[in-house]
Amino acid sequence: MIRFYFHPTPNPAKVALFLEESGLTYELVPVDTSKGEQHRPSFRAVNPNGKVPVIVDTEGLGGKEARVFDSSAILLYLAEKTGRFLGQPADRGEIVSWLFFLGTGLGPFSGQAVHFQFAAPGGLDYAVNRYRREAERHYRVLDSQLAGRDYIVGSDYTIVDISAWGWIDRASRVMKGAADPLAAFPNIKRWFAGIDARPAVAKARAVGQDHEFKTTSDEETKRALFPSNYPAANA
C-alpha cells in the first residue's frame, strides 16, 4: 500500500499521474499547505523538509517500509519498483538527465516565476524578469528537445513526460498575461496535447477533489506557504 501525501499543486500532480497510470493501490492523505498542515510535527516526521508530495510505501524493498519525498525521487522510486515508465535501458542516462533538468531547473524556475508574478509585493521588477526569463529559457530547451519527437526521451512515454506534464500544465500561470502560453513553444504544445489526452490524466486531475482545500489567500496562507518571510514567528 502507498500512502500519498497530497495537495493539488504541480509536484504532487506528477505523482498522482504516475499512480493513476500504473494502477498502484494508494491511500490519499490530504495535506492543506495553505493552512500550514505541512509544518505540523506529525507531517515533519514524514518529510523533514515540510513539503508535499511524500509517499510511504508500506511494502518497500525487502518488506521494509519506505519513505520517499521530492517528486523526482518518488517518480524514480515508483518506476523502479514497478518496472514501468523507465524507457529503454540504453536511454537510462538521458532519462535521469532530463528528470534532473526538470526537477532542478524548469520546475523551480517556473515556481519562482509564479511566486514573483502573483504573490510577491510590487516593485520587484528585477526578480519578476529574472525568473520569468529563466522559465522561458527552460521551456526553449525542452521545446528543442521535443522537435520531431512524441516523447521527451526515446520512443516511450516515461517518468520524464509525467514530470514535465505537472508544470507545463500550469503554463498559463508561469507565462502570466500570454493569451496562448505555449504559442512560442510549438513542440511543447503538440507534446502536451498528446499527454493531456491520456485517460490517466483525467483521473489524476480528479485526485483530491472530494477534499475541501483552502483556496483563499490571507495572512494565514502567506505564513504557511512562505514561512521564511516571517523569521520571528519561526524562531
Automatic annotation (TrEMBL):
Compositionally biased residues, Basic and acidic residues? 210-223
PROSITE patterns named in the record:
GST_CTER, GST_NTER
| InterPro entries found in the cross-reference section | Glutathione-S-Trfase_C-like, Glutathione-S-Trfase_C_sf, Glutathione_S-Trfase, Glutathione_S-Trfase_N, Thioredoxin-like_sf
Under the heading Gene3D superfamilies, the entry gives: 1.20.1050.10, Glutaredoxin
Could you say which residues form the signal peptide?
none
Q: Where is this region: Disordered?
A: 210-235
Checking CDD domains in the record gives: GST_N_Ure2p_like (cd03048)
Q: Which residues form the GST N-terminal domain?
A: 1-86
| Every GST C-terminal domain range | 88-225
What's the protein name?
Answer: Glutathione S-transferase N-terminal domain-containing protein
Origin organism is Mesorhizobium captivum
